[in-house]
Amino acid sequence: AADAKRLGLGREALPEEIAAWNVDVRPDGSGLPEGSGSVMDGEELFVDYCAVCHGDFAEGVDNWPKLAGGDGTLADRDPVKTVGSYWPYLSTVWDYVHRSMPFGGAQTLSADETYAIVAYILYSNYLVDEDFVLSKDNFLEVEMPNADGFIVDDRPETEYGRFSEEACMENCKDSVEITMHATVLDVTPDEGAEAEAGAAMEEANAD
Amino acid sequence: MTAETEKKGASRRAFLKGAVAAGGAVAGAGMARAAEPDPLITEVQEWASGLGEGVDATPYGMPIRFEDDVIRRNVEWLTADTISSINFTPIHALDGTITPQGCAFERHHSGAIELKKEDYRLMINGLVDKPMIFTYADLERFPRENHVYFCECAANTGMEWAGAQLNGAQFTHGMIHNMEYSGVSLRTLLTEAGMETTGDLSDKWVYVEGADASSNGRSIPMDKALDDVLVAFKANGEALRKEHGYPVRLVVPGWEGNMWVKWLRRIEVMDGPVESREETSKYTDTLADGTSRKWTWVMDAKSVVTSPSPQSPITHGAGPLVITGLAWSGHGKITRVDVSTDGGMNWQQARLATEGQNKALTRFYLEIDWDGSEMLLQSRAHDETGYVQPTKDALREVRGENSIYHNNCIQTWWVKENGEAENVEVS
């Protein structure tokens, strides 16, 4: 990056400014502030701030995200992906809750409150006992079940070769059958495609 | 097609032809002759006699009311609410390649925020010589670049993994827009903060986040950051729309839309990825065995026929028909698009409206003489790396049905004899 010269625009960021915005927490725990919180405190906070969408036991309400459950379902037809069944790092839970939750009231949780809520989410996933206290010091001791569940994008090895063969242009298959229809499910919004197509067809037929 | 449907098709065709001959309504082949003079021509119309609107009527115009169906649409059941949600570009009704900003799709995680230029701040911190703060006015003083790129949501076509589900190109392929961006290269801004003391850049990352409550933080490897990433403040000639990140967004050419961070407020140079929520819980692609791919950044070559399509049926009967669509690739230029009218048994090369553009939408056309029989329309994109857009079955063979994101399969529209089209899967 030394190939262009500086223009002298902008100003140096002050430490207070960086501290206010640079709050990301990484898998190795860097970025975590001092503090701690217990499952018991977390339960109370969760009921107050989170349960209306995520349920009393982090099991999710209606279409709102489930935060607990689904262990062992990732290879199922309909996997249930939660903090316990899917998320590889506890740092992400802390970082995301602290920065972006509760939905509509983000950045209102203190460090201790965040530790407590994260402890409660762990408890809801049967990953810690009810007397557990999460802190900056023991943060990395928590084992996330799906920590090894991820591989770096391997499309270059598994797909790009097989999808770069010369394309067939003629007589590529013996027959073609329709195997599935979107209209069977009929889940497209009414005011959308179907109404439109319907109107166009009526117009066409009227001609 | 099977012999059975072939026969059925043939007899329906015969019926249709008979009907046309008897009614004489539509021209089957050759030019129709009008029975009576057209009053739209023979009578003086209001617009040819009276006056239209003055130049002061519309300081900033909207499309004419007859085009009021060319709008973004929402699919309610897809998400828990409309704030962290998606809507769809009406690609079935557009032509060319540039997406009008007013109907270009939106995807927010905590809504479209209002952030005025005066309140805007961009921080660059982390492993740089000097952490920096830029105002919006500062950004406008850096050397500028202009580029056209597509922004495709990683989840575009994601509802179609397990089968044909939504009936219309807008819904199956409309999480995409294509704009001409003006802005400053990220490389220029990183240079301003200085990376003399950063050390080896090849193992460094930038973490980018927005000013909204969701923050949408994502990690980007430094070689991409220094390659073609833009910090953009204009799109299609004017300021970004509020819902597209006003006043400043990141443009990450060829890469999944989630990384195009809107309302960009901070860029941190780091020695590793953050593994944020948007690159662990979301935007990771689960395979059949339960393991998941992460950092699937590039959007592979893809195409779709936009017309005819379920929302854009054939209403003019047999005869000349324009088949058109869009093709794009995150790996570079589209070099060729093939179109099939028989579900992939036979293909012919379509005409590219212009030469394929780097990591941008490319328009294709195939003009045919439609005989009024049913078709199974498909398009197949090729990009400059030699990659050929796969079928959905070929993708599912590698990935299974639960990867949610990165579905770039060949789409099939079943066009019936009456001109209606439907989203289907074929063998």
From TrEMBL, chain B:
Domain of life: Bacteria
Keyword Metal-binding: yes
SUPFAM superfamilies: E set domains, Oxidoreductase molybdopterin-binding domain
Domain Oxidoreductase molybdopterin-binding: 114-275
Pfam families the UniProt entry points to: Mo-co_dimer, Oxidored_molyb
MF annotations from Gene Ontology: heme binding; molybdenum ion binding; molybdopterin cofactor binding; sulfite oxidase activity
Keywords: Metal-binding, Molybdenum, Oxidoreductase
This protein's name: TMAO/DMSO reductase
